[in-house]
């Protein structure tokens, strides 16, 4: 058997292990294959199809519950899909009537870097003042409806009065619908997916009279990693970022180094996350990470806030016990330049959105409520001036 054939066979084995045994066993199979493969082999290049599928699938937990496609199954198809979606997202405890829900619509954005669809949620009710905008980046295998259902961000938008933008990654751009945070061409302002997402945000700002000082970006897993890329590349556009179970910008440059970063930097690929370039934070960031996350190592949460801790002007740490949820430790930091960060370590939590709703995938209802805490943090940090 040729070297390349052997590598592909190992990748197929890893895919089988991912589906039957779990991500850790699949990771070990990939590591074995990479150790046996020549560093110059084309099979480990970023364009190799089988490794790409394996690594991208590993960016979210392989055993997440299946999403219910039609949450409100008794709604006739003659009612627009936007109405069905927003009814499903509103918590039952609100007692709100369906006609008071906001408007959820889908559009497509195109620029020189390519095109992506997105869904836009406009909250119920009239507002005299320009509203904030929150850009929500889903994780692998998810879509806008799934992520909205899991995070309940639309219900918060109705309550607090802000617009929510959900960019959608297509399968033709990534087999598992992951944002390509690990590709050099998708890690810089003005290029690739960062350019497309920023362009979407600017389009919505212009067309809906958004308060340009209050535009925020948040994401889960691969979406969280892309949120870290965007806040670093577009500090003039995004006022703050929320990263849940994600990775720092620049922590990988290809598929092998992405897998190494996800597993805490344990020796595969050419990059070393501990040695990755560190930039001075220009915008606030709130980070959530479960300390039992076996998909994206919790060390990545620490690395996200490490640049804020260099010569910090303020550092406060507290641990909270939660009777009906996960205990957590919250670290609050302020840099000498006055840039704030919060790092929530959720004890006993895995790779899932904290406080999320089980209507969506990759959620942990126990909390703390990441959506509510992100909004608190965001709205307290508009762009200066």
UniProtKB/TrEMBL annotation:
GO terms for cellular component: extracellular region. The keyword Methyltransferase does not apply. Keywords: Hydrolase, Signal. The keyword Metal-binding does not apply. One of its GO terms (molecular function) is hydrolase activity. InterPro entries: AB_hydrolase_fold, Esterase_phb, Plant_Biomass_Hydrol_Est. It comes from the Bacteria. PANTHER family: BLL1128 PROTEIN, UNNAMED PRODUCT-RELATED. This is Poly(3-hydroxyalkanoate) depolymerase. It comes from Cupriavidus lacunae.
